[in-house]
Amino acid sequence: MWKWILYSLILLNIGFFAWSSRSGIPLVQVNEINELDDAVRLLLLKEQPDESAAEEQNIEKALACFSVGPFARKTEVRAAKKKMQKWNIDAKRRVHKTSAEGFWVIIMPLKTRKAANRKIKKIKELGIKDYFLVATGSQKNAISLGVFSKSSSAQRRLKEMNKKGVKAKIIGVDLPKRSYWLDWLATGTPLTANQLGMLQNTFKGVGKVSLNCSM
After folding, report:
1. Quick count: other Cβ atoms within 10 Å of Cβ 103?
2. d(C-alpha 189, C-alpha 192), whole Å
3. Domain count, the chain
4. Helix (H/G/I), strand (E/B), else coil: 11
5. Which of 30, 48, 66 is the last residue of a domain?
6. Is residue 156 part of a domain?
7. Measured CA distances, 157 to 15, 58, 127, 168, 172 (Å)
8. pLDDT tens by residue, 38-82
9. Nearest to 141 by CA among 175, 107, 102, 174
């Protein structure tokens, strides 16, 4: 009985092998075709246009702006904004923060706080005003005699101290600086060359630039 079952299985395998050989399609070809289909699908997906990238480009174009500035003071930028509103230009104020070179007149740090306080007492006796003790940082126990945005002003203060017998020096420092700009969308009302000239005649150093903005 078992011999007949074994012979039957062998005959079935031989028959299946003979059929697959006549058809000319190896058994692995089915898997290869599936893999090829997957590769084609992946390729087609990669070749599809990136809609999100196109949307980002459109957003960038929509947020192209014109900007007028810089204005040194808030009063200037307010006045310029009112003038531009009369020209139907709806501009928004933007604050630009930078640093500028400063000049610090200083009595260099003394060894102890007591020594610094004694120096301050002498300064008071000389009638010197506008000073303060530096309590922390790299210049701890120094005495500040003024910070200036112009070198000429710092030199004038230094000469005044030298005349009174106070030994001081000038060191460079970074000073915070603010400037103001007026931004509006490039799709809005344009600023004519004549109007820009009117602003430049009123506010020194003002110009017009193009930039990307977030209104």
Report:
1. 22
2. 9
3. 2
4. helix
5. 48
6. yes
7. 111, 56, 14, 10, 15
8. 443 443 434 444 555 544 454 444 478 999 999 999 999 999 999
9. 107
CA angle 81, 85, 89 (to 5 degrees): 100
Domain that holds residue 160: 107-167
Measured CA to CA, the distance from residue 206 to residue 189 in angstroms comes to 19
State the amino acid at position 183 in one-letter form: D
78 inside domain: no
DSSP conformation letters of 23-43: HT--TTHHHHHHHHHHHHHHH
Percentage with pLDDT > 70 across the chain? 71
For residue 63, what is the DSSP state? T
With respect to residue 147, please indicate whether it lies within any of the assigned structural domains.
yes
Domain boundary among the residues 152, 167, 182 is at 167
